[in-house]
Structures are given as structure tokens and as C-alpha cells.
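To: structure subgroup
Subject: Chain for Friday's discussion

All,

I'm putting the inputs and outputs inline so they're searchable in the archive.
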Amino acid sequence: MLKVLTRGFLNTAAMSALVVVSGVVATDSTVLSAEIGKTAREYLDRAGVERGICVLIAAEPADLAIEMARQGELILYVQLSDDAQITKTRRAADAAGWLGTRIYIEKGEWSRIHLANNLADAVVAANEVVAEVKATKAELLRVVRPLGKVVLGDRTLTKPYPDKADDWTHAYHGPDNNPQSTDELARAPYITQFLAEPYYVPFPVVTVTSKGRIFKAFGHVGYKERDWPWVNKLVAFNGYNGTVLWKRSLEEGFNIHRNTMVATPEVLYLADTKVCKALDPATGEIMEEILAPPDATGSVWKWMAIVDGILYALVGEEEFRDQTVRGNRTAGGWPWRPMTAGYDRDDYAWGFGRTLFAMDLDTKRVLWKRIEGQKIDGRAIAMKGGRIYYYCHPNFLACLDSQGGKVVWRNNDSKLIEAIGPHEKAQTARLGFASTAYMKCSDEAIYFAGPQRPRLVAASTKDGRFLWQLPHGNYQLVLRDEGLYAMGRTGPSRLVHPLTGEIQTYLNCVRGNCTRVTGTVDSVFCRGHDHAGTLRLTVPDHQPRRIAMMRPDCHDGVIAAGGLVHWGP
């Protein structure tokens, strides 16, 4: 996983160690060790972290650094200006087996900590050096991540979370499925923030974020042995330094590539074939389980969104359970044919349901419920401005009022249905995955495009009437103030007027294969053509630029959140 924004580098792959301590006879040294242990525990408790990176500022830090490492899973970064103390501390850390893995010692004055902005989870200045610390409060807060703590003598400071940072709370950023971040801080120029494992994972992948935590659901298809540890796993990462915070197993046989995971600062919601689990985002532990209404047409969760404390969801009948793959492939990439029994089917197997409902998350009271006669496609639900838009293929496009669940309009006009057209199979490198959502919305229009669509189509949010269409549907869309960016792989990329379909600009670039296109405040990102790293289309000059070192993954693309721009494994 690679993140970019600020200067500095620290390898965060080694995050834990097993320590065995045998019993000893009490001596002056053991009494001293007990005191150091007590001090270390106090600092750790005040810092509020057990994993990640902690900066330790102390006059003689060797014993304290070792004890803080022993009591938790932190990486300790120690900075000293005295050569004798540097040598002593390095020798002690080396003897403990942690030099360069759990404890790093570097030379430098305390007036400037040699780490990137927002990298450390905590800074601890030992009591005896507080008066000597030349670094200002601002310098200590610079290196600590948002919501991280600075322990400065008897004071504990918490770095505020930036107002202009955004979260990627749903699989496609928000319930409207428009993968456009509003993060004002994640902008060019980009400088490497950190590199951290894993580098390779199984597919599919779904990512959401909240307040500096990144939650990644890794799916059931691991073609190579390096993928096996991550198959069917939900993993939480620290978004500022890549630390693995926790990991838990996902339900076997449930294809996670859908909108059934939502992140909030207090709760991570994750749904499967039976329940929606409310997880503690700090630990991954289940806080409660939410059931669909008992009279719903099935218990399998197909789609969900959370807006202003209300959970909206689509549930339905049992669906095809794909096999888990743990393969031994050694060739590059993976086979698109055959893939798995579920992905290889001619009829798409996942995400269809007939019961939509809304639930108050505080009281768990069902506010409304609607059961349709035809199956709603979970890939074609989008929500914005108090309305839910959904498509029952090939029957109708509909709109509900999200407050009361009443039908605002339903459109089965043949011109619209014919324009949307039949489902195509997808499942090729140039097209992408059939499980990709193919409907997005703004306040004024609903858009159909994606790897399984024959045409790019727009309909009005006022009444569902057909607005316009363009030939070829394999576009990845991003809605911005400048217009509708339609990034093509098998057709030309273009900037389109969102209400008329008029071509405003032909863009001098082609997206690279299946990777999702996403937007930031100053860019549109996708994979570079012919696998050439990342393509960054700058806004507003529409110049394609290449970021050669990183290639975005197939399912998420480049995600901006928390003030950083994230490349996943």
C-alpha cells in the first residue's frame, strides 16, 4: 500500500514481536526496571496507542524505549544529539533484538524532528527533558497524525482532525456512487508519505475510510500464494503510516464487491448474508448485529447507505455462493477466463433483492419498507438529495422519497429502457468486473455506464425521462463542477455536458483497463494505459501526467481521504 503527500519515509512492515520474560530475584536493578516499566505504562496509557509509531524524546532513552516496545507493539523513533547516548541506545536496542525493526535511533536536535508531517501516532517527551525540549508545541504536533497525542510532561495534547479533510465513507465515496472526493488537502504536488505491506492481496477489494482509519475488505479469489493470508479478510489500517490495526474474517462464499460497508467515526457497518454487523472501528469487535425486517423478502444484504443516522438497505433472497480460491499461480496477473464459477456465469449472480427499507440507527426502528414485484439490481441504486433512485432490469427506473419511502415517480418508457439496454458479460481486462456499480446520480441526472453497459445513458431525476445517450458504455464516470468526465478504454475519453450529452472536450488520454476512475480536488485519476503506472488528468487544463511508481488496483483506484492520496495493494 502506498500513500503520497508529505516528505519522509519509514518502513512500517515490522509491527509486532514475541517477548518471553523469565522470573528473576529482586535486586536494585529489578526495582529500577519495575520503575521504568511503570513509567513506560503511564506514557503508553496517556499516548493512547499500542500499535504504530511513537516518537520518544528523553535524555537517556535506552531502557525506557525498550520497555515501551516490550509492553506494546509500537515502533519507537528516538532522536538524540549526544553521540555517546546515541551509541548507548543503539547498543541496548540491538541487544534486545529490536534495532532497526522496533526501535530506530537517529541523530538530530529536538528543535526539528526528522519525520514527515502527520506520520507518528504519538510523541512522548519524558518528564526530565520537558524544560530542555527546544521543539515548539507546533513542531511536535506537526509530526503526530490527526487525533494523535503529544505527551509533554504533565500535559497531553491532541492534534485536531482537519476540517478540510474528507472521508470515503461508502464504496464509491458516497451514496450517489460518484467517486469524487471533496478533500481540500489532498492535492498536488505529491511526495511519498510511506510504504507499507501488504503489497499484493486477493480480489475483489472494497475500501472505506473514516477519521484516519482505512478499512479494506479483501475478497475470496487469491490466485497466488502471496494472497492467501488476506483471503476473506477485513483489515483496518492507520491511514497516516500504514500500521495494521486489526484483522477479522469475512463470511465465506459472500461476494463483498457491493455497497454493503459504510464507515463512520464511531461505527463500521458491514453486512453479509444474515446481518449487518456494527463493529468498533478501533478494535474490529462486534458491538451489535442489525437484522432486516422480519417480513422482508430474504435476509441477504445487497446494498446499503447511511445518511444522517438513517440506514437504508436493500435485502433479498439467497444467492450464488462462489468458491474461495487459494491458487498457486506463478505467471503474471490472473486469468479472466476462466475465473470462478460465479464470475464465469452468463447470468449475473449477485446483489438482486426486492425489499428496500429505512431504519433509525439509534432506536433500530424501521421507518418504512417497500417490497417490489421485480428484483432491484444492487449495482443500480444511487441516493442523493433525499431521494433513492433504483433500476429493475429491464422493467423500470424508479425514485423514492427517502423520508417516507413513497414513490415519487416510476418510468418504464421504452425509449429509456431500450437505451439502457441489455447486460453485457464484462469480465475482461479492458472492460472490468461485472460486479461494478453501473449507476450514478447528481441532483439533476441519473447516469448509466460501466463494464457491462452497451451505452452511456442519462435520465432526469425529476421524472426519470430519457435525456441523452452516447454510443459505447464502457466508461468510468466522475461528476465534477466542470462536467461529466467519461474516461474510456475501448472508446475515447471525453468531458460531457451532464444534461445535454454535448461533447465539451475530447480528452487526450485513455484509461488503463479495468481500474476505477476517481476524482480529487485538482485531478482525475485512473490507471495509465498499457499498465504504465497512474494516469493523472490535471484539472482544469486537462493535461495527462504520469505517476510512474504507483499503479492503482483494479477495484478501488486512487482514493483521497484524510488529507492524503492513497494507492491500495
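Points worth raising on Friday:
The first strand starts at residue 2 and ends at 4.
The radius of gyration is 26 Å.

D.
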